[in-house]
Amino acid sequence: MRLFRFRVLVFSQQEPAPAAGFPCRPAMRAFAVAGPPGSWCDTGRNVAAGFTLLELLLVVALLGMLALSAVALTDTADQQSRFEQTQARLEMARRGVLYLGRTSSGEVLLSGFVVDLGRLPLSLSEMVQGVDRATGSPFPGFAPQVALFDPEPGPDGLNDGGEIPLSGPGLTLLKGYRGPYLPLAPGEKAFRDAWGNFSPVPTEDELNYGWVLQSDLRSWQLTSLGSDGLPTDPATDPDVYRHDVSVSLAQSQWMIDLAAVEVQAVNRTGQVFSIAGGRLRAALLVYEAGRWRRFTTDPANAQAAVTSLEASDPGATASFFGLADSTGQSWVPCGEHLLVLVEDPDQNPFTADDTPLVTNQQTGTARVYATRVVLVPGTVVSKLVLELRNP
Question: CA 326 to CA 155: how far, in whole Å?
């Protein structure tokens, strides 16, 4: 195969280009190659050859491979970033439901939806918008809440009318909605995973923003469906970015079982408290999304009746055992609650004669004896103390 060499000639403005067939003049300068030997622009010098077609194709192929590698690396980095952001958002959601920490001095820090409202969220929209999904009404705002004592709770264990409000110093609890409990970036309208998943059902998407939420009011689990937005079995799909990732709260991680707790009443008033023919009990009042649930000691009347509380120095004591609500539930949400001394004349819990008022036999007046208690998840609570003090 015959190789050709080409030259591009640049002429000065003073000298015209030579006619065809004439040798090149010395004033001419050659810069590029090409042209057959012996042509009018051949100077007789050995000029380097240009790229062959094969070399150009090889260069193009290498550049293409580099471009594909760069795209693949960029795509992998983007997927990894989205995966990590989704995991971070899951942790934000869990902390929004319940955050448990400690100060540098060891003081317990409790915050989150369950601490403020006494139950698990039924949807993510409850955490963001503050509207009770069960009723369609906004949650009461975060403020001192007057405790309500219902002698005869409803079938669900919550107050349903005929309550006794417990007003007075130390008888209110700071409760209510103080969200949003999920952080939204500026301009962001929904708390979605980093994959931007949407639920195919519009009403479900409005509630949980493309996440899958499972809650039975005892346990809670939030799941992202990964990069493909579909349920994926890790055993059959090797792509980790398509795998579902979740965060959860078990019942024992946000509630405390008080079925075997001892409630010790300590009388520091110097007065004798007794109830003829009846008994004394202790009750725990728990705020739950605008309503109140009452747990009472010895709901099955299995223990010997406590009918009086003597006066002595430094303090006479009486013990009550076990706490449960009217449905038999003994698990209590973490947070601050109100422990109250209760009179039960007919010795049957959750009947109309139950009252939190203890008669002062010396003055004929009545007052409520109560103590705030804080329950911390992950701890075993064996005793609660209810101190009776004069105002």
Answer: 8
Neighbours of 265 (CB within 10 A): 26
Look up residue 117 and give its two tokens.
Answer: 């409202």
Report the C-alpha gap between 77 and 221 in whole angstroms.
28
Q: Which residues of 308-347 are buried (b: 16+ CB within 10 A; e: fewer)?
A: ebeeeeebbebebbbbbbbeebbbbbbbebbbbbbbbeeb
Q: What is the value of pTM for the model shown?
A: 0.78
Residue 355 pairs in a beta bridge with: 343
Q: For 130, which DSSP code?
A: -
Which of 159, 116, 154, 164 lies closest to 289, judged by CA? 116
CB-based contact 289:145 (threshold 8 Å): no
> Is residue 53 pLDDT above 90, yes or no?
no
Which residues have a Cβ under 8 Å from the Cβ of 189 and sit 6 or more positions away? none
Task: Indicate the SS3 state at residue 17.
Answer: coil
- Answer whether 138's CB lies under 8 Å from 177's CB: yes
